[in-house]
Write a structure and sequence with these properties.
The chain is mainly beta and 160 residues long. The protein contains 1 helix and 10 strands, in the order αββββββββββ. Strands 1, 5, 6, 9 and 10 form a 5-stranded antiparallel sheet that branches. Strands 2, 3, 4, 7 and 8 form a 5-stranded antiparallel sheet that branches. The termini are far apart. It comes from Candidatus Lokiarchaeum ossiferum. This is CYTH domain-containing protein.
Length: 160
């Protein structure tokens, strides 16, 4: 007996569909930290070269990043790095929490200065970001007080 192929209608439109049920169970957020500015009045090299800065970001997951991932932000003594309008994102992540869970994300940022054969940690800070929260601005200052970085921290609810 020959087999018949039966065509099953497939609904390809998204009309009338929403994330309403999903959003009732979970809260979804986009959380991030971006660099607004970096200023230095110090000189960290023995020679008269530029200071080479970068950031190490450790989140509570297994994510570890280096920003910029290649190269450094080079600044001379008494010079500032100002991020453009799109900002330099150090870290961002989509997170999802159940309705009854505590909504915090922990991130550690280290400001480092790179020299041949030596990487020194100038400053580090742990951020505990509550979801959702208003945009905050934090300053990370080196131990010797010669270098400051200003960060923008945000945690917004999203449906994605």
């Amino acid at each position: 007996m020959p087999t018949r192929k039966v065509k099953v209608p497939v609904n390809k439109s998204a009309k009338g569909e929403s994330f309403k049920k999903e959003l009732e169970k979970f809260g979804r957020y986009i959380v991030g930290i971006s660099l607004e500015s970096l200023k230095t009045v110090g000189k960290y090299d023995l020679t008269n070269r530029t200071n080479e800065f970068y950031f190490r970001v450790n989140s509570d997951g297994v994510l570890r990043t280096r920003v910029p991932n290649k190269g450094c932000i080079e600044l001379r003594e008494n010079q500032a790095f100002l991020s453009k309008s799109d900002k330099l994102t150090l870290w961002s992540e989509f997170v999802r929490f159940k309705k009854d869970e505590e909504r915090f994300v922990e991130v550690e940022i280290q400001m480092r200065e790179e020299d041949p054969g030596k990487d020194s940690v100038l400053a580090k800070k742990n951020f505990k970001i509550k979801c959702p929260s208003k945009t905050m601005y934090e300053i990370l200052q080196s131990k010797d007080g010669k270098t400051k970085a200003k960060f923008k921290i945000y945690a917004k609810q999203t449906s994605y």
